[in-house]
Amino acid sequence: MSRGDLIDVGYLVAAVFFIVGLKGLGKPRTARRGNLLGASGMLLAVLVTLLDQAIVSYWVLLAGLAAGAAIGGVLAVRVQMTSMPELVALFNGFGGAASVLVATASFIEVTDLGVVDDQVSVAASATGVIGAVTLTGSVIAFFKLKESLKWSGFNGIRTVNAALAISAIVFSILVVTDPMNTTWLWALVAVGALLGVLVVVPIGGADMPVVIALLNSLSGLAASATGFVLDNTLLIIAGSLVGASGLILTQIMCVAMNRRAVDVIFSASPAASAGSIDADDVYAGKVTSTSADEVAMILDTAGRVVIVPGYGLAVAQAQHAVRELTKVLEANGTEVVFAIHPVAGRMPGHMNVLLAEAEIDYEQLIEMDEVNPTFAQTDVAIVLGANDVVNPLAKTDPDSPIAGMPILDVDQAQTVVVIKRSLSPGFAGIPNPLFAADNAVMLFGDGKKAITDITKALGD
Amino acid sequence: MTLILAFTLFVLAVFLGVELISKVPPTLHTPLMSGSNAISGITLIGALVSAGSDHSTLTTLLAFGAVTLATINVVGGFLVTNRMLSMFATRRPVEKTGDET
Q1: Residues 6+ apart with CB under 8 A from A226
Q2: Domain definitions of chain A by residue range
Q3: ipTM for this prediction
């Protein structure tokens, strides 16, 4: 068996590891093993690649591996669970960037050697634009998630994006028809980079889960396109597996918001269309404010409590406080479950990760479809930092920007306690009639402090 | 490898990916994303060959950047996924005994 054959067999085994690993990642019991399998497949792929005869010098590559492993390791160990969305966005971006760099380096090599063909130039164009969009889109998503970027674009941004998309097509054609001039590829990468920025900049807040899932998919597709540049089967297979899984997550997020991915990406945020209902009409004189002591009294006699966490839980870092409250309530004989809306938070599964960090049993986290019929038998629903996902306007107002979005029916609970800083609207920019409902009380303040105060009051 | 063969692989792998992922519980959405993202760092193996081939200073520089970024993606991605999943795992024994009794 030649060296080349050995490498190919190694790649085949690695591909099988990736497939079995991804399958494992889909089930709670096997998820950890699945991740380890994926990592083993990657290690194997790297090791057999080092046998490649095209590699004549190992210094550069070892330096890159060492630097990357150190940085990646530190990032992974240090990150706070509340910052997971940012980290995932950043990793997506790095993957996209790496694909662009590999594709351009290989393209320059083959053009220098004069052996460029159509497959290479088409694939290099695809990688250039997809990878660049992934990189800059992810970087923008990263800063938006950190809330250090408030800029949400300018008038006519969609026209500019359309023009950029057209120029991307033009530059791709130039790369293919005039491959010896590598300037076209750089121009294409630049256009892709600009497009990534301007497409993600207007998107924010509650639409982030869709964006992250889509960028995840794109990072896979960029790797797959790189596989076509290098004629490498493992890149094609692994990249498209990831591309497909990202697309499915995108689809799940879109269904959960009753929006189409195209609308999320290419239309303005729903807040722009939210003028129909005036907040003062909804809230005036009807909002009941309460105190931690009163909430504790209500909870003291409750048989079943459902906690509805939202992005506010992550912001207030209240997950551990919530666990304390859960323990006290359970010791009191109260049944406590968590109702998880699929798009609560800023990335798919955000709430599950936070609550798992606080060692809350995942059996207690109930999905929307399963928990909704049980609200009628629920004594107290605690809405903690969630807003749009519990807004009844989604059902009652066909003109509302969230019309048709599946929501958690907390209003059917006997008492609804809403813990929130103020009456300010959620991402959709509309008032929430739930806050003015007869069975709802508002506990204004920081989520973590409010929960801690309630727990204390229950103990007294 | 012919283009059509490469394309066949691509299409089959996309369908396989859809089949593999289609019924994932929400609890695993984040780990699935970060784990699959680590797998997309497979572009690393292309970067390694480029970085070692010593073609020109420009391509070596580009490839060095690619190796570094892809390794961050791979190492960071798998590690952080494992960290998350080990948090999910803390209660697994409790759940198991619950199933058996």
Answers
A1: A99, A102, A103, A123, A127, A131, A232, A235, A239, B43, B46
A2: 1-78, 84-268, 279-459
A3: 0.89
